[in-house]
């Protein structure tokens, strides 16, 4: 018996299956397609998550970093301090950079909590430190991860749709619903039919860390903390208090 030719919808579904293969959060059910969409800060639907991740299905989807070094271009005054201090004691500069970036990480995390709407512990886990050494006078805060499922923003079902607080602003997303069998994530239908569905995501920590209040918090921490730490560490090296 001849194998029937797949329908155009079946062919499309097969292509999408291949494109998102291995992504545990994507679910294909019968003839229905479930795919991710990323929300904009104003609550409108943005681009396809699969487009934004460039085909990466599992693990970190993106990463960013903010850092300070002797060649730092952030503030000329601090760059000059670093250059002079590095000539006296690279070890002291490394210690000052590391203490400064630790303080900056705390400030950036607090800013990201308000900026994204995520919990402090969630943001903290997504960031890490790259510490300076005498041979490498660069210290960084690094963030990794992908766009966060909308369910993580204190989502709850209402009659009009799911209420959630991405970007720290609670709003109701009309005609959305949570599906327990799919992990309690938030979905919206593409049209009047049952399928396809789109799973909704909120902000990504790596994206948010390098802009807005988070970026400002980093610069403020460096500007206020680094000169004090350099003074303290050089004082120890030169025999001061």
Automatic annotation (TrEMBL):
Domain of life per record: Bacteria
InterPro entries given in the database record: Phage_lambda_GpZ
Protein name in UniProt: Phage tail protein
Organism: Xanthobacter oligotrophicus
């Amino acid at each position: 018996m001849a194998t029937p030719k797949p329908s155009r919808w079946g062919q499309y579904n097969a292509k999408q299956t291949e494109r998102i293969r291995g992504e545990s959060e994507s679910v294909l059910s019968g003839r229905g397609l479930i795919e991710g969409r990323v929300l904009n800060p104003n609550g409108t639907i943005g681009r396809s998550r699969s487009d934004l991740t460039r085909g990466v299905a599992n693990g970190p989807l993106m990463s960013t970093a903010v850092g300070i070094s002797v060649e730092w271009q952030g503030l000329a005054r601090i760059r000059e301090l670093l250059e002079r201090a590095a000539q006296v004691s690279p070890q002291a500069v490394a210690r000052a950079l590391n203490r400064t970036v630790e303080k900056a990480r705390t400030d950036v995390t607090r800013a990201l909590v308000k900026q994204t709407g995520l919990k402090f512990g969630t943001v903290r886990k997504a960031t890490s430190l790259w510490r300076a050494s005498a041979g490498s006078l660069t210290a960084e805060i690094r963030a990794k991860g992908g766009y966060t499922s909308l369910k993580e923003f204190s989502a709850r079902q209402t009659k009009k749709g799911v209420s959630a607080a991405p970007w720290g602003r609670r709003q109701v997303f009309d005609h959305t619903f949570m599906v327990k069998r799919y992990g309690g994530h938030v979905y919206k239908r593409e049209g009047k039919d049952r399928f396809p569905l789109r799973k909704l995501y909120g902000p990504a920590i790596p994206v948010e860390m390098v802009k807005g209040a988070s970026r400002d918090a980093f610069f403020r921490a460096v500007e206020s903390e680094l000169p004090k730490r350099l003074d303290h560490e050089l004082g120890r090296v030169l025999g001061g208090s």
